[in-house]
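lol forgot to send this yesterday, sorry. struct tokens for the thing we talked abt
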């Protein structure tokens, strides 16, 4: 199988790598994370101008017709810089839901998403749902030409800055049924919405969103009423692939920084890299990284082709492996850096914190191992 990137993908990869190198030294990232939005509006506009926000959308919607492979290329480079801009939340998750909706909704919403003037988010998790996308108690009832939503959504990534949010709500069935779930595009300035934004441990932002008698026009339903779960699952798979690619980029930085440090740090008149036990440890880190990268390629290709009967199982395997290996690499990077690995001034700890959050997003290692076995 040919794993070579196309010439266009290589150009994208190189341009993003330059962007990360120029704009994301650790001190610059820390200043952005501490700001009001938690990211740079200037960087977001630059991403729109360079066409990165248009990458995964169809040409008829104003995009470049890219797929999960193109997103993988982009997210891996973002992972190397721990990029803060809401690409995952707005483009992969929120935009990923809208692009699976009606032509009228796509025509209304996606141009603003692509030019960067409209940011989206996906509100799928609830306090009781743990990692089950289908555990939904937020409800929507029909009222004339509108639907009225009531409920509470948790840990909405970049929900504090989003202009609109895709909300999963139950329109029929029981709490844990896969049927009866519908997706609604809700304006964040609508009457009855309350959102409480907060910083997360990895430097990003999230929000708790409460909906009380929020009216949403029927034209803002994504897909078909009661049939939102397949769309939600497809978006979650795309998000897992994107997160895994970001994790691969972060893993590469962690193991390379560790190798460089052990070659410079002298103990007992020898660089740490001379000690065989530490050499073995770093080889283990490299092997874990390479295994994750190989499985990422397989899962991304299977999902992008759309015909593989094992694609969903491979996604579960990928999320399990990335979570397990990411923590292994992060723990060893911190340990081999000694006390310095615990400091805020060194980027190792920041990458490790991001790996810990990625491990828990859309299901942790244990959850996906159980789903893989089932």
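and heres what i got for the seq, position by position
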């Amino acid at each position: 199988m040919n794993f070579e990137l196309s010439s266009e993908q290589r150009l994208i990869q190189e341009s993003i790598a330059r962007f990360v190198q120029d704009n994301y030294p650790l001190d610059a990232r820390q200043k952005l994370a501490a700001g009001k939005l938690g990211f740079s509006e200037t960087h977001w506009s630059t991403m729109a101008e360079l066409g990165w926000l248009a990458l995964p959308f169809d040409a008829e919607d104003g995009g470049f017709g890219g797929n999960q492979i193109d997103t993988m290329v982009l997210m891996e480079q973002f992972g190397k810089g721990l990029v803060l801009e809401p690409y995952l939340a707005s483009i992969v998750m929120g935009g990923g839901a809208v692009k699976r909706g009606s032509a009228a909704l796509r025509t209304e919403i996606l141009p603003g998403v692509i030019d960067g003037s409209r940011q989206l988010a996906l509100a799928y998790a609830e306090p009781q749902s743990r990692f089950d996308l289908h555990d939904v108690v937020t409800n929507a009832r029909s009222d004339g030409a509108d639907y009225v939503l009531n409920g509470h959504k948790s840990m909405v990534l970049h929900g504090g800055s989003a202009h609109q949010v895709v909300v999963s709500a139950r329109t029929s069935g029981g709490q844990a049924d896969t049927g009866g779930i519908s997706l609604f595009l809700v304006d964040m300035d609508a009457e009855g919405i309350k959102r409480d934004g907060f910083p997360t441990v990895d430097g990003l932002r999230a929000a708790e969103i409460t909906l009380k008698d929020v009216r949403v026009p029927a034209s803002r339903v994504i897909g078909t009423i009661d049939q939102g779960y397949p769309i939600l699952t497809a978006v979650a798979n795309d998000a897992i692939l994107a997160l895994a690619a970001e994790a691969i980029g972060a893993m590469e930085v962690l193991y390379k920084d560790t190798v460089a440090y052990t070659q410079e740090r002298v103990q007992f008149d020898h660089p740490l890299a001379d000690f065989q036990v530490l050499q073995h440890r770093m080889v283990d880190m490299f092997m874990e990284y390479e295994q994750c990268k190989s499985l990422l390629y397989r899962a991304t290709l299977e999902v992008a082709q759309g015909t593989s009967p094992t694609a969903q199982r491979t996604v579960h395997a990928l999320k399990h492996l990335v979570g397990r290996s990411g923590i292994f690499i992060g723990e060893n990077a911190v340990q081999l850096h000694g006390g310095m690995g615990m400091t805020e001034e060194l980027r190792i700890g920041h990458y490790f914190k991001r790996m810990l959050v990625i491990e828990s997003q859309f299901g942790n290692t244990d959850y996906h191992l159980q789903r893989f076995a089932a």
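The chain has a mean pLDDT of 96. anyway ping me if u want another try
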